[in-house]
Amino acid sequence: MHDFIINHAQKIRSQYNANKINKETSNNHFQNKHTVKKHFTPGQMVLDRQLQVSTRAAGKWSPVHTGPFIIEQIDGSDKTAICKNLIANKTIKAHLSNLNEYRHSDKTLRVCQVQAQT
Prior knowledge:
Elements: H1 2-31, E1 45-49, E2 65-74, E3 80-85, E4 91-95, E5 99-101, H2 106-117
Antiparallel strand pairs: 1-2, 1-5, 2-3, 3-4
C-alpha cells in the first residue's frame, strides 16, 4: 500500500512538471512570436537607434538613428556590440536590438572610408 501511494505521487508529480514545461514553452512562443533575432558580424556598418528622441531640443524632428558605426567586437553573449563611429571616431557599446543594418550607396561608403582613414 505504501509503495502504491509513493508511485502514484511520483506519477502525479511528473505529469505536473511536464504540463508546467509545456505551458512555459507555449508562453515563450506567444511572447516572442514577432521578435526577429538580429545577427551582425565584426566590420559590418550599422546605425544606432536613439532611445530618448523626445527629450532633445528638436524633439520629434531630430533623427532617430545615429551613425554610421562599424562593429568592432560582439560580446560573447551575442547581446551587445562595441561600435566605432566613422565620422566622430567615438566608441559606444550598444545592444544588438538597438542596431540596424546601414544601407548605403557607393558614394556614402567612399566618403566614410576616406574619413576613417584620416
